[in-house]
Design brief:
By secondary structure, the chain is α/β, with parallel strands linked by helices. Helix content is about 35%, strand content about 10%. The chain has seven helices and four strands.
Length: about 190
């Protein structure tokens, strides 16, 4: 129908915010969260869940130093290792590194397509300099005819077949036509 619906939620703290993003994404909507550096360490548990449950989410990390204690913060690229392996082990998250405001704009849109194609959280790593300072940049252009790359999506017929199956066991699920990057090219059934 090409109708677009938007929702904006305000969470009281970092854990609730990332929980909302993972929950909304798990239910099929595109969702993102921006954070200011230190919040990433608090989000590790949900990022690990997003990775292992294959929930496509987008995080934008505007890196800065230290906790928000009221003292002035400065730019720093200290979250790269934390973001790359965010969770409690055995995860590797795709990271995007913009170098200009224009790249921030473009890579944010790309991050959603990448997250859904790979079925995993994607983190765009910006920093305080890009996030708060004035820059001379090329115009930001959006093409309204852009087609989103939603990754593997079940058709109406496939969903009907799942609903009609007795219990919805894995054997009765239709196979996806696009192999997951985590299966080394082998075909697999959907969740």
């Amino acid at each position: 129908t090409r109708k677009t619906y938007y929702g904006i939620g305000q969470a009281g703290e970092v854990l609730r915010a990332i929980g909302m993003v993972v929950g909304v994404s798990r239910n099929g909507a595109r969702a993102s969260r921006a954070m200011g550096g230190p919040g990433g360490s608090l989000m590790n548990e949900f990022l690990g869940h997003g990775y292992f449950a294959e929930v496509p989410t987008v995080l934008i990390d505007v890196q800065r130093t230290g906790p928000s204690t009221g003292r002035p913060t400065r730019t720093q690229q200290s979250d790269i290792l934390l973001a790359a392996y965010a969770s409690h082990g055995d995860t590797k998250h795709p990271l995007l590194f913009p170098a200009s405001p224009k790249e921030c704009f473009e890579m944010t849109a790309d991050a959603f397509d990448l997250a859904e194609g790979l079925q995993t959280p994607v983190i765009m790593m910006s920093d305080l300099d890009l996030g708060m300072n004035d820059h001379v940049t090329d115009p930001l252009v959006w093409d309204d005819a852009n087609e989103y790359k939603r990754g593997k999506v079940l058709t109406s017929e496939q969903l009907t077949a799942i609903a009609a199956s007795s219990v919805g066991t894995r054997a009765s699920l239709p196979a996806m036509s696009d192999p997951s990057p985590r299966t080394n090219g082998k075909e697999r059934a959907t969740r």
